[in-house]
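Obj: model holo form, ligand = iron/sulfur cluster.
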Amino acid sequence: MNTNQFSILRANRQIEFNAEKYKTKPFIFNGKKKSVYENANLSIFVNESCNANCKFCVDQLRFEGKGKTFVKGRIADDEEYFARLEEVLETLRPLNTSISITGGEPTKSKRLPRILQLVAKYNFRKRVITTNGSGLLDKMDGKRVIDHIVENGFHHLNISKTHFIEGINAEVMQYDNSYFTNEQMAEVVKIALAGKVRPRLSCLLLKSGIHDIDGMMQYLDFFGSMGVDNIIFRETMDYDVTAMLNVPKMRFLEENKVPLDDVWSKIDMMPQVFKPIVQVLGYYYYCEVYKFKGIDMVTESANLAAIDHQKAKVPGMVFEMVLHPNGNLNGSWIEDDDVLLPYATNDTLIYSGRDKNL
Ligand code: SF4
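Output (holo structure tokens):
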């Protein structure tokens, strides 16, 4: 693979998002026959809030793109929640999807250790947790959260980190409390690697943060020296501007966008430094993977607005699944949109969430 081969799909990525070509598996949801994308992922959305308030948070934009606010209901009773989780895992086990635990901030949920255990019990093929890192060294049920992740055989630990300079990172991610330092990162990476969990760092490219090749190389070197060998740089997502309500976040994203096309054109000129490995086209995202000094460096651009377009092209297709804290299993990140397995509860749902800056 060389950079010239990369450039054709790169240039056409928006028109090549083509769900009709995907391989699927048939599956019945609530009596309705659907086709599930072969590489579909099940996300378990653990908690409805986050202890950070990143200026770029896409979770909020996903909701606001549908004219909704980031407020979610959740099953209040723990036993009822775990019964529902187990029911969904058992139902979906034949699909053997990848599973990712996400939030809000999952490492701050007291439910997390038992969720990890249940996912391990059903032995799904790939298990990932995505976190801002802040709770990984907290103790729950007598052990650190990272130890629970290791013990339950998770394969990947995705950690968001905007910058290696603490002040810049803190300014963008705006943690309420319990900031996750680089020193803690080094400790977590060591424990994860010893336990065969592969850490992956995620950095959103921002004009006020990492914004060029030099910054990317410094980031790669800084965290590479801790033993991290998988780092993703993301372009801020494109979205439907007419549907958004969150003016401060939209303004931040607009002012801070670093076009990956510019970065890629520089990378193309450095084939000895960045060795092209593969390119991946998802249903609303596009990635290029390079090798940099032994590190797998992924670069990703995505368009949230393409999701609905792709779904409309192939009705009945399930691209991904999300188990929401209210017990609904959906084909969408919105808890009452595209419901695949609705959850009827006798329990009172608690409504809460982050509504800062809305
Ligand atoms: S860590 Fe940041 S991006 Fe992730 S959910 Fe929290 S606020 Fe959003």
